[in-house]
User: What shape does this take?
Amino acid sequence: MSDKAYDLVVIGAGPGGYTGAIRAAQLGLKVAIIDKRGALGGTCLNVGCIPSKALLESSEHFIAAQHELADHGVDTSGVKLNLKKMMERKNAIVKELTDGIDYLMNKNKIETFIGTGKVLDKNTVEVSLNDGGSEKLTASNIMLATGSVPNHLPFLPVDEKSVVTSTGALDLEKVPDHLIVIGGGVIGLELGSVWKRLGAKVTVIEFTNAIAAGMDTKIAKRFQAVLKKQGMEFLMESKVVEANTESQPMKVKYENLKTGETSEIEGDVVLVSTGRRPYSEGLGLENVGITPNQRGQVEVNHSFQTNVPNIYAIGDLIPGPMLAHKAEEEGVAVAEIVSGQSGHVNYLTVPGIVYTWPELASVGYTEDQLKEQNIPYNVGTFPFSPNGRAKAMGHTEGQAKILAHKESDKILGVHILGPRAGDLIGEAVVAMEFGGSAEDLARSFHAHPTLSEVVREAALAVDKRARQM
Assistant: This one.
């Protein structure tokens, strides 16, 4: 046995990988983790969740200083944007958190290898080190947690300057005059809203007839109306077919899928946010007989095992929503399974959040899904407009919506559009995890005045008992 022998070798140090590694170490396993990026934390911490939320927060403050604080009696005339300082703050937050992952690896005695991991056989992983040379690690178990990368359009080469993915959109040196966003999903809407607040004209080109795919249809339509009111423009049911990136401004040609007509739009920055694909290239999967499916995903069983029983896969690499918190729970589950415990993930309670302002948050079934499955349900909705705390904040747009089983009253889904919806959805997740009913939420204390009262009133409304309207 090599002295580089481990109970678990994790390839990929994103949220799923590092969280799973920590849990495995807590359970007494000898663990190694491999990542080719110089800073640990994966896409999420380096060029995804964290830097985008930092810019979202900063841009919200900018809008508040420009347009909202005067209503509170705070005179902020002469406000101007210091984009360089904003980016420096974002980068400092990222570094603090990625350094924190290094600390956690050391604290939990997890050996870290900075390089590219490749599976040679079911018990051997080779690491091509970034600093040169290589290491061969012997592994009783291997966890693949390599995440995903942005999809590209073949006719629109990305340079991360004028044609950008989420990575480049987080690091623009100046505010675009006109940002064209291809794709009305989470990434496009969040980053589009950042640059809209900072002064750009933003046009979203979306293939389908609804933004925020997978969210409750009625809430998503209201969400789009809110964003349009803020100044974002939408070209729905439209497909980008061609782009001239040699000229400035660039020319993007799109086709209206309903009429077949083509039109052209000009912009100085194009954000390609047409989804992400699993990162499985160069992993050596062919060496052990693991074949990704047509979407590039690695198929696993209920225990996250591939067709090679001691090789596990999690996160964006496997089917399911591409969310950091989903990957975290899967990483923990694998660590517990490898340790002889019964790791489990309840996919019905994985929340999804769009961190615009207002936020959009969802967990469980949508109305469309309940109708498709012929599940009988009742609906309770309640707006933020009469809520005392929302009025005090000056943010009353949106509503909470609760779907409960018509016979048992068990909560089946919760959808919230409003201020801090991403925080409010947490109580719905807990309630659903415990099999709670709308009545349970309705009879639970919610402090007054708080935003959470909107959720309670929606639960009361399931039984037509809302009290604040």
Summary: DSSP finds 13 helices and 21 strands in the chain. The domain at 5-62+74-150+277-345 is CATH 3.50.50.60 (FAD/NAD(P)-binding domain). The chain has a mean pLDDT of 97. The chain has three domains: 5-62+74-150+277-345, 163-274, 349-462.
